[in-house]
Amino acid sequence: MTERFQPGGVLHALVSGLLELALAAVLLAVSLLVGDSNGGTATSLAAAAALWAVLALYSLVTALLRARVHAAELDGDAVVLHGVGGTRRLRYDELSAVEVARNRTRLVARSGQAYTVRGVRGRAQGNRFRARVLARATEAVQRRSAARDQAGTAPTTGETPTAQDRPQSGPSEEGPPSDRDDAGRLPGAEG
Q: What is the Cα–Cα distance from 49 to 38, expressed in whole angstroms?
C-alpha cells in the first residue's frame, strides 16, 4: 500500500493570494483616481499595487504547487518525491538518514547527497514521515533478507544446486540500478 504525504497550508496560501490580489486591484484603482490631481501619489500607489500583485502571484503559485505538485509517496521499495522538476525515486537501501530540523525534512543518501522533501511541512509531519520511512525501510530489509535466505537454501534431495537454486547477485534481485555512479557499492568502498 502506498502512503502519500502532501504539505498543508493550501487554503492559507490561496486565501492570502486572493486577498493580496484584491489589495493590488484596490491600490491600482485608487492610483488611477488620484492620477489627475497628484502624480507622485499615483506613482507610489501604482508601485505598491505592482508589489502586491507580485506577492499575490507568489502566494497563488505556492498554493497550486502545494495542492498539485509537491508530494512524497512511500511504497514497499522506495520513497518517491514529486516536485517541479519531476519525480525522484530513492530506494530504501540508498538512504542513510531522514533529517527533521527547523521545520524542514531531508532524505540523505548513502553518497551524502541530501534531498529536500517538499511534500512534508512542519516538524510534526516530518517526524511522522521519518517514522514511516524507517518502518518501511525495516520491512523492506526483512523481506529482502527472507528472500535471500529462501533462495540461498540448497535442494534437500541431495542434488547439486543449479544456477536457478543459487542466489544471484546484482541488480536482478534488488530492482533496476540507480542512475548514480555509486549504486550498489557499500559505504566506504572504493570504486
A: 17
**Residues 106 and 120 sit within 8 Å (Cβ to Cβ):** no
- Report the DSSP beta bridge partners of residue 82: 71, 87
* Helix residue ranges per DSSP H, the chain: 10-34, 39-64, 123-152, 171-174
CATH topology of domain 71-151: PH-domain like (2.30.29)
- DSSP state, 93? G
The C-alpha cell that represents 156 in the structure block: 534437500
Instruction: Pull the grid cell for residue 56.
Output: 499575490
Cβ-contact 21, 89 below 8 angstroms: no
pLDDT in tens, 68-113: 888 899 988 899 999 888 899 999 988 889 999 888 899 999 899 9
SS3 percent helix, strand, coil of the chain, rounded to 5, is 50, 20, 35
The ranges assigned to domains in the chain are: 7-69, 71-151
**Helix residue ranges, H only, 153-181:** 171-174
